[in-house]
Amino acid sequence: MMITMLSGKIQRVKVTDTDSDIDGGITIDEKLMEMAGIGKYQEVQVINITTGAHFTTYALPGKKASGVIQTNGGCSHMAKSGDVIQILTYASVPAAAAGNWIPQEVPTDEKNRPIHSIDQGAAKFLDARRRRAGAA
Q: Which residues have C-beta within 8 Å of that of residue 132, sequence separation ≥ 6?
């Protein structure tokens, strides 16, 4: 049996801009995407902490280390500039591995910069732990 688990989370970022003329999606600082394990065009769930709205869209990479978080198209009506949001992704994990699952969480500061980063040693540890959990 497979269980849907949180796989990536960018915590408490502020929307920096909106553009209703772009077809859709949410543009995210590429560094934050990499740290949370979010790929280009990957489905993301957005939770607007300011308004309580929830919506699903896809991720688009923005300028690396810029802090950009821009809602596009119809999404621009769901989260406005200044709103605080969380961006989440999910993965299907074997039930036996769920107890050892570790999502990639990226806490941020008021300028949408990561508060801390996962160093290479920690990243290797987490990758190894995920592989072991998947093999269980």
A: 100
133 close to 97: Cβ distance less than 8 angstroms = yes
Looking at the DSSP bridge assignments, the partners of residue 125 are none
Is the distance from CB of 37 to CB of 89 less than 8 angstroms?
A: yes
Q: Give the C-alpha separation, 13 to 69, whole Å.
A: 8
For the chain, what is the domain count? 1
Predicted TM-score (pTM) of the model is: 0.84
Domain that holds residue 120: 2-135
- CA triple 67-70-73, angle to 5 deg: 170
Contact 20, 81 (CB under 8 A): no
- We report the CATH number of the domain holding residue 116 as 2.40.40.20
List average pLDDT for each run of 10 residues in the chain, which is 136 residues long: 95 97 95 96 98 98 98 96 98 91 93 74 57 57
Burial 5-42 (b: 16+ CB within 10 A, else e): ebbbbbbbbbbbebeeeeeebbbbbbbbbbbbebeeee
